[in-house]
Structures are given as C-alpha cells and as structure tokens.
Amino acid sequence: MTHDDHLAGAVEPDTRPADPRAEAFQGVRAAHRNELAEDYVELIADLIQTQGEARPVDIATKLGVKAPTVAKALDRLARDGLITRAKYRSVFLTEEGRALAKECRRRHDIVLRFLLSLGLDPETAEHDAEGIEHHVSERTLALFAAFANRS
Question: Is beta strand 91-93 parallel, antiparallel or unpaired with respect to 83-85?
Fold first, then answer.
C-alpha cells in the first residue's frame, strides 16, 4: 500500500491465515445465539404433542421464567418465521419451526443415547444433553450415534 493509498483510506485485505481457535469461538457464539430459539421450538413442539397446545403460560412454567421473558422470546421467534400466534392464544410452529424442532429433537436424542451408553445416569444424561445438543458438530454427532448404536 502506498502512502497515498493510506491517506485515501484504502484498506489492505487481511491475508493472515484463519486461527482455528477463532473459528471455534465463532461457532460457539453462533450456537449460543441459536440456543434460545432451539429450546423454545423444541418445547413448543413437546407441549403441542403432550397437551394439544402450547400456551405462553405453560412455556413460562416449563422454562421457569416470567411471562414477559416468554413474550419477548416469542416475538423474536415470530419475526424469525418459526411461530405464529395471536394475543392471548396458543402458539403454533410454522413449517420452518416444526423442521427446527424435529432437528433439535434428533440431536438431543442422539446425545442422550450416547451419554446413557457411557453409563451416565438418566437425570445427568438428560441435563447434559440439553447443553451439548446445541454445540456438537454433525461429524461428532454421527460418531455419537454410531457409538450409541453399538451398545
């Protein structure tokens, strides 16, 4: 870059090799952003399956949070096209929301079966699977499934 380029505000492209740790941290941050949506759609699908409907009050109770917290999350899910709802009515998953809930359930079930196959008690396995499911790669998930299926 010449002195004139620098004065004109030209920016040199970043040619440094990507740090694998930086990529891993970016992946974790992305997983954290998606975690809330995934937890909500999975719970909404479960409530619809077990109770026939998913009411905001039931979502709040299951998650142990207050109604305004649920309302804010549901607003985001609606903006993201994952749910539909009317004020003071049940929550419904869109086609995209149902697909996400199904994928979350698949990931959760694989992680849970893997942890149980290691000999972990069901309560701890359920608790740990809830966190791991959001952060495990598809490659690792496939290995978990293969290991669990051998047991």
Answer: antiparallel
